[in-house]
Amino acid sequence: MRSRFFDDLLGAAEADPNIVFVTGDIGFGVVDELQRKCPGQFVNAGVAEQNMTGLAAGIALAGARVFTYSIANFPTLRCLEQIRNDVAYHHADVIVVAVGGGLSYGALGMSHHATEDLAIMRAIPGLAVAAPGDAAETSAVMADLVANGGPAYLRLGKAGEPIVHRAPIQLCRGESIALRTGGDIVLFSTGAILESALRAADLLAQAGVRADVRSFPWLDPLDLVAINDAAHRYPTIVTVEEHSVIGGLGSAVAEILAEMPHSASLIRVALPPRFSSLVGDQEYLRGAHGLDPASITHRVLEQMEVNRGLASQVR
């Protein structure tokens, strides 16, 4: 996902001299070619994310389209005031890019867990929010960002995420993608945990539950049509995300469902609303926090059983 982002950014920067990349002293190795081919469009702001974001806003207000870049929660939480006041308030054409969303940098501990970013970025007026599920979705989102610009936030995985889409896809801003259809329930996924959601759907099928899967590369704007359709088509909607249960995809879907008549129940599979003191790689931490395919499957089956019991009591 990270490599695809830089491939797409390099192509865009070579075609458009108004595209500028500002890094917080991160990414060397993957950004070398961009710096070599487009030196006048490359700025290293140092490990100073507030300055990086303020600088980007100024460059954008002078007419450029600017991508800022750092890892985990550093390009969002450390410089939240600058994103809110300098970028979003002034409608500056800045795309804030974070590589290593969720638990990608789990081996570095809690300080590098990006698990509240979607909630906080969603709350900023006028800021588009994207979290693609694989490299193809990254390219589709990048095509929109390059064409239409910011203010926006782009959350990427770290590297080496499984390829879900075997061919390029086209995507409008705010559009979701149906990967499996014809099932009894539906799984909504956002971000790099998409492949785990698909594997959970396979396990659910073995348990006798056919699960459709829909990817949401965009959280803001959100695909309201798809959510409305799901609320009237399926008895159960499941959201899956590598993010706090507060404020991410599950919360966004719940907010929409709360304002429409429907009979669908919502199961939110996400990180619990507390800090994790565990240290380990992403796969280990996903398993420890119930986000591996087996745990997702167990949670869905368990909650569906609870919901059936509650429904029988109502009758």
TrEMBL record:
Top-level division of the source organism's lineage: Bacteria
UniProt GO molecular function: magnesium ion binding
Residues covered by the Transketolase-like pyrimidine-binding domain: 1-163
InterPro entries: PDH/Transketolase (IPR051157), THDP-binding (IPR029061), Transketo_C/PFOR_II (IPR009014), Transketolase-like_Pyr-bd (IPR005475), Transketolase_C (IPR033248)
Keywords recorded for this protein, A-Z: Thiamine pyrophosphate
Essential cofactor(s): thiamine diphosphate
CDD domains: TPP_PYR_DXS_TK_like
Pfam families with a match to the protein in the record: Transket_pyr (PF02779), Transketolase_C (PF02780)
Family: Belongs to the transketolase family.
Official protein name in the record: Transketolase
Classification lineage: Bacteria, Bacillati, Actinomycetota, Actinomycetes, Micromonosporales
